[in-house]
Amino acid sequence: MANLTKDEILILLRPPFTNWSNITREAEKVVGYPTSFMNLRCLLSDEFANLALYLRKLVGSNHLVMQTAKNVLYGDSKNLQPWGLIILLLSKSVKAHVPTTQAKVIDEQQRALAELIELMRTGHLIHRGIVNVPFAKRSKSTESAIFGNKIAILLGDYLLVTANTMLAGLKNADVLYIVSSGLKDLSEGEFFGDRDEQNMPLPGKPRLTNDDIITFDTTSIAVDDVIGKPRKEWTARTVFNGVSLLGRACQSAMLLAKQHRETQNNAYYFGCHVGLAWQAATELQSLTSDSKDRFCLASAPVLFALEGNPDLYKIIDQAKNDVKDVDYEDLKFNILKTDAIDKTKMLYEDHAKKATSYIESIGHNESVEMIKKLINTF
């Protein structure tokens, strides 16, 4: 690829088009529930409506919370993965051997679980839209940013409080503990590794190592042990950044369905692997599309490129204060000249294969086949 132009490389690497919305609708027919509107009950509340009136004042601004709100409302599949749909499909893949009346209660609990997990993730994403405005730099020109921060805090808090109220409403101490551990990981992910002034993640300096053992036990992950090791660093960051919460939600769904401990654990690993496969696919799209948008500097293609060409870290050094200072077009061109894209594809295929293996160990039915179809469409 070294002798090809940037446009020629992009054409070769561009992924085939897939009609994601049609597949999502097929999956929703299986679960019998329109998960595209999973947050609708919350969005139609009086409290949220009042906050939305203030959010309208930010229309036309470049505040991060507006981009997040747009992704939530219009279902940007690249940024918002349908976790609720995955959880409900997994729930449908097993059947609790209980009386009919109790089975209906379990169905309602699993639906509530899917909804509250979506609310937790959405609330967290909105909180990430807060812009750091140092006190010394505040002026009339920063008033919009400060106002946007207030709205982001209120919106995010409202969604998280609603989600936690729903979690308590399940009246299941084990599920409460499991989901809370995933939420803890999600919060800790915001402090994992180096960050710029806006708390955007920065990659660690590459280190030569053959240590590639991966763990999903977040209590045993040490920052110093993974930073600079491409696969381990990417996995740790992604697990803390939401994959753990998805895995714990899948585990909780099996607990509510009164499945054995082994099935619960397999569901956790399934959730982690499907989340990692999804993230790898998303990052591939960002680097192989014609888009000139900024991409995450701690994404798998960037980390693999730094491993193959450590000199690229000089470009990353420009982002110590703000990731916007990086020449993304130049960085992208240099990444595409390495084997980073091929390694990221292998990363996706590895996690997709493992996710498929774990879901097949849980059941063989229409729901499982639909999950496999979703995995193969990432």
Corresponding CATH architecture: Orthogonal Bundle
CATH class: Mainly Alpha
CATH topology value = Farnesyl Diphosphate Synthase
Number of strands: 0
Oligomer: single chain
- Give the fraction of residues assigned to helices: 55-70%
> How do the SSEs run, as a string of H and E?
HHHHHHHHHHHHHHHHH
Query: Measured on Cα atoms, how large is the radius of gyration?
Result: 21 Å
Average of pLDDT = 84
Shape: globular
Strand content: under 5%
Structural class: mainly alpha
Protein name: Decaprenyl-diphosphate synthase subunit 2
GO cellular component, one term: transferase complex
GO molecular function: prenyltransferase activity
Organism: Papilio machaon (Old World swallowtail butterfly)
Task: Walk me through the structure.
Helix content is 64%, strand content 0%. The protein has 378 residues and is mainly α. The chain has one domain (6-376): Farnesyl Diphosphate Synthase, CATH 1.10.600.10. Helix 16 (340-362) packs antiparallel against helix 17 (366-377). The chain is globular and about 65 Å long.
List keywords for this structure.
Decaprenyl-diphosphate synthase subunit 2; mainly alpha; Isoprenoid_synthase_dom_sf; 378 residues; Farnesyl Diphosphate Synthase
